[in-house]
């Protein structure tokens, strides 16, 4: 929504800095959020409302403590971090506030999702996006604050909706502060093994930008990030579907019906085909948008689009097979899978970016996306039995 605006008021170099900041906050979220929303989703259908309220409150305790620890570590290594990602130390600390606020908001949204209330979910997300764009217009367009204005816009909109989330959770009865050690242990048992997994995702989506910045400068990072930003057209679609589809799958699996499992598998294969077609269609649309709606300084970003789309397509397919690992609470399996893929990404991206150029990062992203799909699919089949290759069988 905000991309065309940014390309006219930010140089590719400025946009590269904004992109690096997004990469930075993404990795912070791993260690502050600790996948607490995943722990909530795994327990939601097993708990009564009062128990859920206590569980949510204990998740906030864990997240707050993790945020404080991250602040202390960042304060000690601020100079080194600032040099690595080209971000001033002040904004490094602000990033902790952003990701803590995001973690709380995600829990609020997940509760609506699991209660199958798409209207509230959608209105909230759209409102937050509008606020984000509004602050960006004020700070970047009117006050001409450059990349700093964009970061401040993200901070203000995120903190604002963090406060709104707290109010909504309180009014809906999902906040009841009562320290429960068993809840904290359960959440950590789920979330901590997921750190390698989510860190692996960060490596797949963030390390390429770091490599490009180091070898070719933030201007090229800005072009690369712009091209991959169009992948979000497909990413938002597959993620929204995944969020809506997961509760349905959990309900189906709780009945242990072979016939229904067969239908889930058939649907998954059909979904793969649809997502692949959408990747091609969205690539064409994105290239047209770049040509006619983006600043002339960003036209070269179109060469990254097709690779961005298929990277997101493979991510959407991964979501569909990964559901069963989370249902079985075999998060160690997915952590192993993602670690394997992440190590491969670190090496492959470095080699391709250094010796082929920035486009090497796009090649690497697509290859790794496909590898991740098959590795996670393998572990999914081992974690929870589904008729992936014999779905005609009936009871």
Count of DSSP H/I helices: 16
**What is the overall silhouette?**
globular
* Rg value: 21 Å
Q: Kindly give the count of domains.
A: 2
Which features characterize this protein?
single chain, 395 residues, mainly alpha, 2 domains, 16 helices
Describe the fold and architecture.
Helices cover 84% and strands 0% of the residues. With 395 residues, the protein is mainly α. The protein folds into two domains: 179 residues, no CATH class; 202 residues, no CATH class. Helix 4 runs antiparallel to helix 6. The N and C termini lie far apart (49 Å). The model has no long low-confidence stretch (mean pLDDT 91).
Q: What can be said about this structure in brief?
A:
By secondary structure, the chain is mainly alpha-helical. The protein has helices spanning about 5-10, 10-35, 35-45, 50-75, 80-85, 90-115, 120-140, 145-170, 180-190, 195-215, 220-230, 230-255, 260-295, 305-325, 330-355, 360-385. The chain has two domains: about 1-180, no CATH class; about 195-395, no CATH class.
